[in-house]
Amino acid sequence: MTTKNATIKDVAREAKVSVASVSRVLNGLGGVTPETQKIVREVANRLNYIPDNAARSLITGRTHTIGAVLPDLYGEFFSELIRGIDLAARARGLHLLVSSSHDGVADAAAAVRAMRGRVDGMLILSEYVDAAFLEENLPEKLSAVLLNSPVKSARYPVLNIDNRAGAIAMVQHLIETGHQQVAFISGPKTNFDAQQREKGYRAAMTKHAPGMPLTIVDGNFTEESGYRAGRELLAKKPRPQAVFAANDMMAIGCLYAFKEAGIDVPGDIALAGFDDILIARYITPPLSTVQVRIADLGRIALDRLAALLNPADSTPASVETLGCDIVIRESCGAKKGSVAAPNKPRRSPRPSPT
Length: 354
Known about the structure:
- Keywords: DNA-binding, Repressor, Transcription, Transcription regulation.
- Residues 6-60 form the HTH lacI-type domain.
- The longest helix has 17 residues, at 192-208.
- The protein has 354 residues and is of the alpha/beta class.
- The chain has three domains: 8-60, 434 Repressor (Amino-terminal Domain), CATH 1.10.260; 65-161 and 295-322, Rossmann fold; 163-292 and 325-347, 3-Layer(aba) Sandwich (Rossmann fold), CATH 3.40.50.2300.
- It is 40% helix and 16% strand.
- The N and C termini lie far apart (59 Å).
- The strands form two sheets. A seven-stranded mixed sheet has the order 2-1-3-4-5-11-13, with helices on both faces. It has a six-stranded mixed sheet with strand order 7-6-8-9-10-12, sandwiched between helices.
- Helix 9 (192-208) links the parallel strand 6 (182-185) and strand 7.
């Protein structure tokens, strides 16, 4: 038979199930066995069946689209995060709509408002989002999961990286490797991840290098800011023995500044970053870093949002923290390949409303 104008009845006939079963599978409504779901999706793909999304939305009240509002779409971190979200969404038959909010709170509000009515739920990662922002810009019935956020709300689950523990582990490693004077390149002042990583640096220095002065230079998570910070650190007297950057992009910029000045890494200065973006293992020397499983962060966030969209799921809002490891490569001067014991993911109970 021709598949050019296949209908839902054609899919049902070929799959040997009812039209209602096909509808439930393609609309993600549940109540159908995994075996039947597999058959229906295979037949729908083979027949090139394209649902009438407008009509389907009128019937189900759902768009089968998820929105993601991110600070930026540039760089390996965000491309990997989007990949993790998109793979998980596609596995559930969902589409992904992405927007950025890098120009301030008004831009973030515009991005969120533009998605209302177009998506069934949202993933939001933005330094501009607090409880008041959510109250003003998100309809009460629109589900959302917050990523890397200090917000504590009974309505919105939060998925965070254990930035503080990761930073503590890396600074402790640098000190135990013999580098007492560890400098830190900070991230944006209003960024939650950057704040937590700086707190980890301060805590580790206080505990493991008591009396050693803290050296903190400003950065904004870009390679250029890491380059500027590297030049600034080279001018300090005494020069630090090690540099820990709040993300890998800044560490790479810093490395370039050191190489430009003829400074050997790790012979003259040890260097480490945070995130473990793909390029970190391919630069020279390969970069020691705190490993964030970025694609997993996106996948888990989408899973949490999908659970909210399921009426049968009554899981309360929570703050879940994902652990991270440190990956030791040549840039810090220690034996490469060793990995710190993993921090286990943990979930706190339902937070109090703010």
